[in-house]
Amino acid sequence: VQLQASGGGLVQAGGSLRLSCAASKSFGSAYTMGWYRRAPGKQRDLVAAIVSGGTINYADSVKGRFTISRDNAKNTCYLQMNSLKPEDTAVYYCVVVYYSDPKTYWGQGTQVTVSS
Questions:
Q1: Distance CA 107, CA 116 (A)
Q2: What is the spatial distance between Cα 57 and Cα 66, in angstroms, rounded to a whole number?
Q3: How many Å apart are CA 45 and CA 43, to the nearest integer?
Q4: 74 versus 28: which is more confidently predicted?
Q5: Do 94 and 106 form a contact (C-beta atoms < 8 A)?
Q6: Which helix or strand (DSSP H or E) is residue 18 part of?
């Protein structure tokens, strides 16, 4: 399974970006999909995730600003990021876990840089 992430870039504080993650395997058998990020010098942390059945989880730091969504027809997961802050600067990674597959699949990462 390959995940292709895109949509990162440089944006001023207060701006918006939308990240996309296209999977080579149908989302029909996906248990969960989501986004993590790794800021310079920090560990990789969960940003948002959708669990099978519709449950959505957000990191407290992005609640009210970020929205995760999925398009099953396109096998694509999105992360709409609004009101961006400099502390959102990080490499963002998409991740998918499928039922009956023990492996966790990671995208290649996309850089998001927010200037003050």
A1: 28
A2: 11
A3: 6
A4: 74
A5: yes
A6: strand 17-23
pLDDT band at 41 (very low <50, low <70, confident <90, very high): very high
For 58-111, how does the pLDDT look when each residue is reduced to its tens digit (9 = 90+)?
Answer: 999 999 999 999 999 999 999 999 999 999 999 999 999 999 899 999 999 999
CA distance 14 to 48: 19
Side-chain-side CA neighbours of residue 76 (13 Å) = 15
Considering Cα of 60, then 65, then 71, then 75, what sign does the dihedral take?
negative
Q: What's the rounded Cα separation, in Å, for the pair 67 and 80?
A: 5
- Torsion angle of alpha carbons 33, 97, 71, 82, nearest 10°? 20
Q: Is 54 exposed, middle or buried (0-12, 13-18, 19+ CB in 10 A)?
A: exposed
The phi and psi torsions of 29 (rounded to 5 degrees) equal -110, 20
Tokens 């292709």 correspond to 4
- In angstroms, the CA 4 to CA 48 distance is 17
